[in-house]
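Below is how a single chain appears once it has passed through the pipeline. First comes the sequence as given, then the structure the pipeline wrote out for it. We keep one example in the README because the format questions we get most often are answered faster by looking than by reading.
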Amino acid sequence: MLDEQLARVRTHRNNIQRYRHLLQTSLTEFEREFVDKRLSEEKSKLEGLTSSFSNEAHRDRSPGPDSPLA
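Resulting structure:
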């Protein structure tokens, strides 16, 4: 499962790089708006994935109910 999540993060990061590169090229206004929208969507998806990683990591480090730290 972790491998799948890392692959998704990698895919979104690659897409973000691709869209940023495209924005540095000569585009029509319509194309630029399309790429801007896709870039925003990819950033949102990446943010969601990375925040879920953070939440899972925090939960995994939390002491369980039987832990002397709980």
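The chain has a mean pLDDT of 86.

See the next section for the split statistics.
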